[in-house]
Amino acid sequence: MASKIKVDQLETADGSGTIALQNQLSGMTGASMPTGSVLQVVHTSSSANATSTSTDWVDSGLSLAITPSSTSSKIKVEATCSVKVDGTGTTVRGGIRVLRGSTVIWNSDNNRELLQVRGSPEEINGVITPIILDTPSTTSATTYKVQMAMSTGSNMRVYQGASGTTMTLSEIAG
User: What is the total count of domains within the chain?
Assistant: First the structure.
């Protein structure tokens, strides 16, 4: 249930005056907001595990959609991914990347070595936190997702558990 507070005036903290509120926000839309204003925010988190033994890019299960209100808007993409790569050799390596639809917007050099340890036969753990300012140039629903790939090792996991993975998309007025 939505709540509503109705007031006509606010009194200043020191009691020296009042602020009239009538029609102060009428007609305010995303198009009239100044450049750089946050127009909307969507967020998701997950507690599921995504595990892969592939050296090809596969979906991690972390995905979120936003519908920009203007083609000039930018989308700030923030992800937090707890990652683990196991191995039985002397080097374990793996990485993640972020896509808008099928377009890679982060880690576009196809790098699978964001996490790397040499001389360790066991595992490497880390938290990868990409932050991207994207320009999708659309007002259609746009999906962002995280993929993972192992370069060397036995398996890779974007694991949520207590650490969790999250994604936040913020529409910024352009």
Answer: 1
